[in-house]
Amino acid sequence: MTATRPSCVAFRHVAFEGLGLLEPLLAERGFRVRYLDAGVDDLGAVDPLAPDLLVVLGGPIGADDDADYPFLTDEIRVLAARLAADRPTLGLCLGAQLMARALGARIYPAAGKEIGWAGIRLTGAGRDSCLRHLDGDETAVLHWHGDTFDLPDGAEHLAATDVCPNQAFRYGRNALALQFHAEAAGASLERWFIGHTGEIAATPGVTVPRLRADTARWSGPLTERGRRCFSEWLSTVIPDTDPVS
């Protein structure tokens, strides 16, 4: 364990989309976790290289909606600096899209919305990465997005679905972008079903009872496998924070 507690800053876009499965893993490794709420806290005041780990979480806005949400400009600046310096960085859903944009990739509407539990297809590189823990018919992850992105130049493609060919990528040694949610499971998703009620109602084939039933089915496997996935990734990018056995 490091002499001083390592730090994690999480950019949060809506109050009910937090670190999820990552939070107890970070606690086990002694991290000091600080949430910064976009639109409320001054993201422009963040030193891009200071946190040991930066996590950019999901949210219902677009990654290029700067005109309505000018704080996105600060997020892009922070991400661009961290990615250039190869500092440990994790993007989830909107966070992955913002990472892609910070690397110069195009953001645009996907062929359709993906909302609900489904598997991912791993590339060869994905099967050699921490994402291998999420592979197989016995595991599904939560998808909740309508936009997607082109694979950034220099990024390593890790996962795909039919609707969104670019579901995950690695950049450098220490940056991981997941358009899907491997951190979200369990009863806390009831907050999502309330907070996203308008989008659920507007999306054909998506209902709260179906989401709730699939959450009950898949949360157990994802909790176990997601924990393995993120544990391996954290041990790789910040090895001196491995929990003491």
Structure characterization notes:
- The protein has 245 residues and is of the alpha/beta class.
- The protein has a single domain, classed as 3-Layer(aba) Sandwich (Rossmann fold), CATH 3.40.50.880.
- It is built from seven helices and ten strands.
- The strands form two sheets. An eight-stranded mixed sheet has the order 2-1-3-4-10-9-8-6, with helices on both faces.
- Helix 1 (22-28) links the parallel strand 1 (7-12) and strand 2.
Could you name the key traits of this structure?
245 residues; Rossmann fold; eight-stranded mixed beta sheet; two-stranded antiparallel ribbon; 10 strands; 32% helix
Total number of beta strands: 10
Oligomer: single chain
**Which regions have little confidence, pLDDT < 50, spanning 5+ residues?**
none
Class derived from helix and strand content: alpha/beta
Helix content: 25-40%
Note the run of SSEs as H and E. Answer: EHEEHEHEEHEEEEHHH
Spatial strand order of the main sheet: 2-1-3-4-10-9-8-6
What would you call the shape?
globular
Can you give the mean pLDDT? 95
Please report the distance between the alpha carbons of the first and last residues: 12 Å
Query: Tell me, what is the CATH class?
Result: Alpha Beta
Give the number of helices: 7
- Strand percentage: 15-25%
Tally of discrete structural domains: 1
Compact summary:
The chain has helices spanning 22-28, 71-85, 94-102, 124-127, 189-195, 197-202, 208-237, and strands at 7-12, 32-37, 53-56, 89-92, 107-118, 121-122, 141-149, 156-160, 168-171, 175-178. With 245 residues, it is α/β, with parallel strands linked by helices.
